[in-house]
Amino acid sequence: MDVDLWVWFAVVGAIIALLAIDLFAHRKAHVIGVREAALWSVFYIVIGVTFGAIVWNVWGAEYGQQYYAGYIIEKSLSVDNVFVWAIIFTFFGVPRQYQHRVLFLGVLGALVFRGIFIGLGAALISQFGWILYIFAAFLIYTAITMIVKRDDHIDVANSKVMKWFQRVTPMTDAYYGQKFVIRRAGIVYATPLLAVLVLVEVSDIIFAVDSIPAIFGVTQEAFIVFTANAFAILGLRALYFLLADLIHRFVYLKIGLAVVLLWVGAKLALLEVLYIPTNVSLAVIALILTVAIVASIVKTRGQGRHAPEVEEAPPFREATDEELAEAEAVFGSKALTRD
Asked: Quick count: other Cβ atoms within 10 Å of Cβ 313?
């Protein structure tokens, strides 16, 4: 696949522009409702699908199918990431109007880390072709682990990252608007929002370790791997606000994702023995995920929306007006507000 350097710059520029538009649209803290989240989700899906059509038209059907296969894999795996975010936000009791800023920075970090991982993966594959078999074994192992531990959820209170953060960082028990750090009586404190951001970024890295080998299982073209990842990730914030209160309804999704990883891992392991056309692989992936989602909806029909249940959640709260007046921002304006 021959991609000119200017095309790379154009795509990265478009991604930066989309991030800027999103940041401008949500520059003021507010609660994002289901309707707004749905509209933004449709917006990003249309962009992702449209870019796939461009790839198909410019570079041919084979690369277009590879893009769509990678996009669907990344989009579906990102739903599992959304559920982890929902548990983290629920544990910390993050006010909904403050969640977007954390997710914006989380997605920005995810784009950076995945770009690094994709570059490393592409370099390793070009130098050591046999590493694809390592990816295949890793995907199969991950799939089996997902099936065995499908009912397990992240334990925020006992996570190593959380314990490390609490050990090294003095933290308030209150939210000071959207500030991540504040100064009080001359001492700098992290707010709970910074702990949330750290956990979100770590979860992004963990999911990248799973998803990058998966997409390399359907294409080894770095341009397709990067763009499919980027356009799938861009809509994660909207997807979170749309699906966060529906975790309990996707009862079979994790099994479906595991089967997809098994399929991709097996396809990668048999690369030199059995050629599976990309259109067949795309159809299989779409079928697996469709069955898992439809079966989940049928199984849980009649259930309404509600936040995930989290045990041992600490009593984080919003700072009082007096506390806001006594504290000052470490960066930017010294006056603290709830926005």
From this structure: 13
Instruction: Give me the phi and psi of 188, to 5 degrees please.
Output: -85, 130
Please tell me which residue, 247 or 269, carries the higher pLDDT value. Answer: 269
In angstroms, how far apart are the furthest CA atoms of the chain? 70
Q: Which long-range contacts (CB under 8 A, 24 or more apart) does 221-226 make?
A: 221/1, 221/63, 221/66, 222/118, 222/119, 222/122, 223/1, 223/3, 223/7, 223/8, 224/1, 224/55, 224/63, 224/66, 224/67, 224/70, 225/70, 225/118, 225/121, 225/122, 226/11, 226/114, 226/115, 226/118
Is pLDDT of 333 > 60?
no
| Whole-angstrom Cα Rg for the chain | 21
3-state secondary structure string across 147-199? HHCCCCCCCCCCCHHHHHHHHHCCECCEECCCCCEEEECCEEEECHHHHHHHH
* CA gap 258, 73 in Å, rounded: 11
Q: Please answer whether residues 255 and 147 qualify as being in contact, where contact means their C-beta atoms are separated by less than 8 angstroms.
A: yes
pLDDT tens digits along 292-332:
989 988 988 877 777 677 666 667 878 787 877 777 777 65
Side-chain-side CA neighbours of residue 156 (13 Å):
25
The strand pairing partners of 329, in sequence order, are 182
Angle, helices 61-92 vs 96-127, to 10°: value is 140
Q: pTM for the full model? A: 0.83
